[in-house]
Design goal:
Elements (H helix, E strand, L loop, with lengths): L1 H10 L4 H10 L4 E6 L6 H9 L13 H5 L10 E8 L26 H17 L5 E4 L7 H7 L4 E2 L5 E2 L7 E8 L18 H5 L17 H6 L7 H7 L8 H4 L16 H4 L3 H6 L2 H8 L9 H15 L5 H7 L5 H14 L2 H13 L3 H11 L26
Antiparallel strand pairs: 1-2, 2-6, 3-6, 4-5
Length: 401
């Protein structure tokens, strides 16, 4: 047994260039190496969580000791191989009429990237194991601070918008990693190049950055439209604008993204024909079937309908009134509440007629009061009814694939 361990450790020493060549061979053109050692940002994470900035994302509170030092979980860990994968920043040349694609964050316009890159990551993991090393791949799972590790691996720096910025290609990228027992020479971290620029902080319509390098997820449009359960804070809805799923504002204004390759998205087939009307009027099971295999699937149909209603209220497109009226019969109270808010936000006679009809069939007393207040021209109170909570299991913080 001791001989086997010694043999494995002797084989698990290879050069950085060999590993980066192996990454490129498996289709990962941008890769870097970081040491598997205690993170210097553990205290910052603890303070961030103590502020409640994580919102509903309770899984971020799990296993803090492993996030601080992965060797407490995997004693064999010596290095991280961190991978950066670009995604297309530009829309397709042609869009269907009233397409919702521009309302979807760029990373989510194609097939679910977890499904796309899983086979490739597993092959790279297996190739490293073939060297006689331990290895395990991760993408958005497990107790890792991926952006910090990517910065340590020389792939960029964590900007004031808390995203990784590559000085060569900007921030339009996914991250993945492999933790391994290979003892590999690490890359040098990239220095911070944000300087005095505050474009991302200034552009955020919901003021989600209480200070540079700190994100209050509870105010972030991406969080609100993807992770947040139940009714959305009315004070933030105007800021959501026309974002149906996710948000790219703080990346759109970043000057470093001018360096990004202007590639065009190849959207998922079902997303090319998606419109706000279809989101609002589709049956829940039909909508989920349509969105299967896309990042939108995990948010669920009810939250997407809530988002669509808020976007419709911000756009004030009267052609969407029949779709809102259909959605306001949804069984989830927080979906109906968003529809009533949208109709009140229109402020037009046609929208008021739809809202008046809603009063006839709404059985929830809290929502009826909201409708009445809107029809009387009063500002509705923020809804806190317990029925407006969306009960859905949160994603597992998996041990690995």
């Amino acid at each position: 047994m001791k001989f086997a361990v010694a043999l494995r450790e002797s084989m698990a020493v290879t050069t950085r260039d060999e590993i980066l060549d192996l990454c490129r061979h498996h289709g990962f053109q941008r890769a870097g190496i970081a040491r598997a050692e205690p993170t210097p940002h553990a205290d910052f994470l603890a303070q961030w969580l103590a502020q409640g900035y994580q919102g509903d994302m309770a899984w971020l509170e799990r296993a803090p000791e492993f996030r601080k030092d992965i060797r407490l979980r995997f004693p064999w860990a010596k290095s991280f191989i961190v991978l950066a994968i670009d995604y297309a920043p530009e829309l397709p040349e042609k869009l269907r009429q009233k397409s919702a694609l521009p309302m979807i964050a760029r990373y989510a316009r194609g097939a679910d990237y977890h499904d796309v890159y899983k086979p490739r990551l597993k092959k790279l993991q297996d190739a490293i194991k073939a060297l006689g090393a331990d290895a395990m791949w991760y993408q958005d799972t497990g107790p890792f601070l991926e952006r910090e590790l990517a910065a340590q691996a020389g792939l960029g720096w964590v900007g004031k918008n808390t995203l990784l910025i590559d000085p060569r290609s900007g921030s339009w990228k996914f991250l993945a990693l492999i933790v391994t027992s290979l003892d590999i020479e690490p890359d040098k971290p990239e220095p911070d190049h944000c300087g005095t620029c505050t474009a991302c902080l200034d552009a955020c319509p919901t003021k989600a950055f209480p200070q540079p390098y700190v994100l209050d997820a509870r105010k972030c449009i991406s969080y609100l439209t993807i992770e947040h359960k139940g009714a959305m804070d009315p004070a933030l809805r105007d800021g959501v604008g026309n974002w149906l799923f996710g948000c790219d504002i703080c990346q759109e204004v970043c000057p470093w993204n001018r360096k990004a390759e202007p590639t065009r998205a190849e959207p998922h087939e079902e997303l090319t024909g998606l419109t706000l009307s279809k989101v609002l009027t589709s049956k829940d099971d039909h909508l989920l079937k349509r969105l299967a295999g896309t990042p939108l699937e995990r948010t669920g149909s009810a939250r997407l309908k809530r988002n669509a209603a808020i976007v419709a209220g911000n756009l004030r497109d009267e052609s969407l009134l029949p779709s809102i009226e259909q959605a306001m019969r949804h069984n989830e109270a927080f979906v109906r509440e968003a529809c009533y808010w949208a109709l009140a936000h229109y402020g037009t006679p046609a929208a008021r007629k739809v809202l008046a009809r809603a009063q006839r069939h709404e059985e929830d007393d809290t929502l009826r009061e909201q409708i009445i207040a809107a029809l009387q021209g009063n500002e509705p109170q923020q809804t806190t009814h317990t029925d407006l909570l969306d009960v859905q299991d949160e994603p597992d913080d998996q041990d690995g694939p």
